[in-house]
Amino acid sequence: MTEAREPARPHARRAPGTPCWVSLMAHGLAATEEFYGELFGWEFRPGPQQLGPYVRAVLDGREVAGMGQLPPDRRLPIAWTPYFASDDVDRTADTVRLCGGTVAVGPLDAAEAGRMAIASDPSGAVFGIWQGSAHLGTALTGVPGTPAWNELVTYETESVAKFYATVFGYEEEPVVSADFDYVTLHLDGRPVAGLHGVGHGLPRDRGSHWRTYFEVADADLTLRQVTELGGRVVRPARDSPHGRVATVADPEGAEFSLIQEPH
């Protein structure tokens, strides 16, 4: 994790490889909207329906995240998925395949919003690729209720770091530590995402997965709200060099982390 932030510029095209959007596919879209609306103050407006019912979460009139409804017969893990910017989704998808990843959906057009694909890295972690047109991605960051950081939780970082560096052109900056396997991915000298190798601490029922951190004003208060709204606390709040952090799950089990900026 890092304290580095870049204010979102809603009308600026992001450099390839920049995390530009997060999306959640759930079984009960209405109930999921209610949970996150109460928790983060989000409102919702319809988005492209290529993959079924889909809405965009809006904060202060600006789009910050997406939510879709899984078909009833799809028993996929319920999880937040980060999307990384691309100037050419088709070419990026080809590179994913060449580097040992899998492209599960697309590339396909999402109406006039842009072109997308959903892929997984060689460790099985799912991520999206987004070539923005009318919709360039998250239009607000740096305030409570917005995505703050994306982190891959995986068995070990070395091999998967090479995959992401090749696909998106990242520079890797490992944490030099005998007992902490962490690599920060940089674009143009700026940290944009992290890879955390947890070894046998990786949940067997989930495998490698991306985790989204959302900024909150008060982590402890937000934890209480999560449980009141039917979610659960996965890891209680603790202080870190980057602020107070905790991990929670929504009522359907989608895990995400909270971060309260240090005062």
UniProtKB/TrEMBL annotation:
- Top-level taxonomy: Bacteria, Bacillati, Actinomycetota, Actinomycetes, Kitasatosporales
The transmembrane residues are none
Q: Per UniProt, what is one Pfam family of this protein?
A: Glyoxalase_6
Tell me which InterPro entries the record gives: Anthracycline_SecMetBiosynth, Glyas_Bleomycin-R_OHBP_Dase, Glyoxalase_6, VOC_core
* UniProt-listed PANTHER family: CONSERVED PROTEIN (PTHR33993:SF10), GLYOXALASE-RELATED (PTHR33993)
Cite the VOC domain residue spans from the record.
18-132, 146-261
Q: Which domain of life is it from?
A: Bacteria
Give the protein name, as stated in the record. Answer: Bleomycin resistance protein
- Which organism's genome codes for this protein? Streptomyces monashensis
